[in-house]
Amino acid sequence: MPRRTSAPARAVPPRRLGTAAVLVAALLGAASCAVGPEPGSPVRVAAASPATASATPTASAVAAPTGTPAAPPVVPARVPETLTFSAKTLDGTTFSAARLAGKPVVLWFWAPWCATCASQAWTVAEIAPKYRDTVPIIGVAGLGEQKAMKEFVAEFDLGGTPQLDDRAGALWRRFEVVEQSTFLIIDRDGRVVQQGFLDGESLSRRVAELAG
């Protein structure tokens, strides 16, 4: 019998080999893109560069808005016994001497019919507005009628300083004033440092000293 020979293997054209290689490479690439980190494996985050870190403000780096500093609390001056009184002014306003605590104060006791008081009234009218905030001068009118007291204030232009209506004599008795005209000076600590008569020149000098 004649020997049967097998047919030689058919060669694959080079063009098909190139196409197959491309397909295999594409499949491998797709498989590698689909693979992520294994479950449970830590995900590493790249550290920010110094430039990036400085550009991102942190909570501690952000300055809190600044406002006007709070003013310190105002401590009221202690009210001395000499200034713990109140009265009505000749125009009907309530006056509290406690508001004068911490300042030197001059109380002027006068009567509307008093010639000496009239001679001093011009000086009081001149200096009282000037020292209103540093050495208040407070008139205490007594020993007369309210109408006459108001006329006295108007005549001598004393409306720029408080004039108390003490027709009942409560303040005159409180400070033991027995004659007019009397100036009673209370220092910053509430002590009576002078009580008696002062002429215009002496009054001006004394008030200036207290203000300084």
Explain this structure to me?
This is Redoxin domain-containing protein. Residues 50-212 form the Thioredoxin domain. It holds the Pfam family AhpC-TSA. The chain is of the alpha/beta class. It has a domain at 87-211: Glutaredoxin. The chain has six helices and seven strands; from the N terminus they run ααβββαβαβαββα. It has helices spanning 14-34, 50-55, 115-127, 146-155, 170-174, 200-211, and strands at 86-88, 94-96, 105-110, 137-141, 163-165, 182-186, 192-196. Strands 5-4-3-6-7 form a five-stranded mixed β-sheet, covered by helices on one side. Strands 1-2 form a two-stranded antiparallel sheet. Mean pLDDT is 77; it is low at 1-65.
Summarize the entry for a quick read:
This protein has 212 residues and is of the alpha/beta class. The chain has helices spanning 14-34, 50-55, 115-127, 146-155, 170-174, 200-211; strands spanning 86-88, 94-96, 105-110, 137-141, 163-165, 182-186, 192-196. Helix content is 32%, strand content 14%.
